[in-house]
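To the wet lab folks,

You asked to see what we're planning to order before we commit. Fair enough. Below is the target structure as tokens, and below that is the sequence we designed to fit it. If anything looks off to you, flag it before the synthesis order goes out.
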């Protein structure tokens, strides 16, 4: 009788640990998949400054990229731009997507699409005027990369001098990812 009770207790304990191990093994699987994904995600972004004849432009663009492999990465971002050109000023915010290619470790090629919204103001002789704007830009760029830092220039291929929020199509940038 004692051996049956002992056998029953051992069977219950064995069954309990078997079920616990199975539950934990199933719970760990999605976590491991998530951590493998997050190991390839890098955070950072870019800062852009452009100065010209009576012109100032400041751009801040935090973003996250997924490092697909050592050559390719891509991801979303947020944008903030301020521009002052004579009596004209604009404050813009928006979203963006970035694609980065590193054919060799020192060279980074980029494609960025951004959609910006905001306001533009003009202080003229006839008074002040303000209007809401939205702008789509497609930048192609290249830069020198050292570690997680890239310094280069980008060109807005959708630039239209009469209808653009930007003063120039060319913009220098510093991009950092950790």
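Sequence we intend to order:
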């Amino acid at each position: 009788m004692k051996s049956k009770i002992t056998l029953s207790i051992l069977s219950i304990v064995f069954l309990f640990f078997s079920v616990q191990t199975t539950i934990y093994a199933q719970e760990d699987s999605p976590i491991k998949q998530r951590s493998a994904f997050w190991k390839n995600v890098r955070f950072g972004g870019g800062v852009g400054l452009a100065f010209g004849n009576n012109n100032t432009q400041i751009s801040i663009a935090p973003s996250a990229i997924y490092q697909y492999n050592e050559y390719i990465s891509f991801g979303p971002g947020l944008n903030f731009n301020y521009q002052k050109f004579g009596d004209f000023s604009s404050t813009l915010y928006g979203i963006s997507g970035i694609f980065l290619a590193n054919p060799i470790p020192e060279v980074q090629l980029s494609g960025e699409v951004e959609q910006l919204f905001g306001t533009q103001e003009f202080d003229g002789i006839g008074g002040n005027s303000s209007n809401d704007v939205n702008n789509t830009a497609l930048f192609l760029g290249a830069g020198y990369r050292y570690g997680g830092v890239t310094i280069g220039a980008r060109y807005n291929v959708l630039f239209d001098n009469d209808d653009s929020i930007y003063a120039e199509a060319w913009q220098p940038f510093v991009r950092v990812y950790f």
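Structural context that might help your review: The chain has one helix and eight strands. Residues 73 and 102 are 9 Å apart (CA to CA).

Thanks,
Computational group
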